[in-house]
Design a protein that fits this description.
- It is a single chain.
- The chain is α/β, with parallel strands linked by helices.
- It is built from 8 helices and 7 strands.
- Helix 4 links the parallel strand 1 and strand 2.
- It is globular and about 40 Å long.
Length: 222
């Protein structure tokens, strides 16, 4: 198997299982036209997030790392009436593109967008009493994953679901000699997870149009 085959399979299955969606397609296209890097989740990964939110009957979602708002739209659409999603993004260009994409998708009243460093904003969210959240999606800088995960736990409840994206880093996760802060963050996160009795978790490797990587799925124990 190679990248061409992974991409072809994604194209085939997405074409069959994911309906044509002008808002999502435009969000992806507009992010590219705005000069943003192609770091959003793939359509099938977006659908997975949507399904996880529905399976957990999530009414409140916290996303760390908005990027262009593509994953935000997938998640927000899974919420029932009265549900709320808070999303945090530190990049001004990302946040601006995301706001346009979210508004265009008709989700401006559902999504509460916060712009700034997550580690500055998360204490504010706690102070507001906005939690606990039913679902967390962490897809920000990888060096900060351990701290973001710790905050997710703080803002969770028994049964909350925490999804952390891009934790395999093309296989670099298993390189203890790496000096890359992203690798250090992903390894530190897994070591933290291994000793954390409050959650049950697994990491799944993935291949597809976005290449080789993986995600961690954790559930907060009752």
């Amino acid at each position: 198997m190679n990248q061409d085959q992974w991409t072809a399979i994604d194209s085939y299955t997405n074409g069959l299982l994911i309906s044509h969606d002008p808002a999502l397609e435009k969000a992806s296209r507009m992010s590219g036209e705005a000069g943003l890097p192609d770091v959003e989740v793939a359509p099938n990964q977006g659908m997975l997030l949507h399904l996880l939110a529905r399976l957990g009957e999530a009414r409140s979602i916290l996303e760390i790392g908005t990027f262009g708002g593509y994953s935000t739209i997938w998640l927000a659409r899974a919420l029932p009436e009265g549900g709320k999603l808070i999303t945090i993004e530190s990049g001004i260009l990302f946040a601006r593109a995301a706001r346009e994409n979210i508004e265009r998708a008709g989700l401006g009243d559902v999504v509460d967008q916060r712009v700034g460093r997550a580690l500055d904003i998360l204490p504010e969210i706690e102070a507001e009493g906005a939690g606990p959240f039913d679902l967390f999606f962490i897809d920000a800088d990888k060096a900060g994953i351990p701290e973001y995960f710790a905050w997710a736990l703080k803002l969770s409840r028994p049964g909350s679901v925490i999804v952390v994206d891009n934790v395999v880093l093309g296989g670099a996760l298993v390189d203890p000699a790496s000096t890359d802060p992203a690798v250090a963050g992903a390894r530190g996160f897994h070591e933290l997870l291994a000793g954390e009795p409050r959650v049950t978790a697994t990491t799944v490797q993935t291949v597809g149009s976005k290449g080789y990587d993986g995600f961690t799925l954790a559930v907060v124990n009752g």
